[in-house]
Design goal:
The protein is an all-alpha fold. Helices cover about 40% and strands about 0% of the residues. It has 2 helices and no strands.
């Protein structure tokens, strides 16, 4: 079921991380990667940027 949802996203830029256990089992690099992803895709107001705004 989770992989079906992952496959349903049309984005060409997606990554699936699988970690054992609950939220305490998530390694620190995972949140750092998420922060970099959102910085690339959201503007300073939190709105999604177009591909043109991101230089794509």
């Amino acid at each position: 079921m989770a992989l079906d949802l992952f496959d349903a996203f049309a984005s060409t830029e997606k990554t699936l991380y699988a970690n054992m256990g609950g939220h305490t089992g998530v390694p620190s690099f995972a949140s750092e990667d998420a922060a970099r992803f959102f910085a690339r895709h959201l503007d300073s107001t939190g709105d999604l940027m177009s591909t043109t705004d991101r230089g794509l």
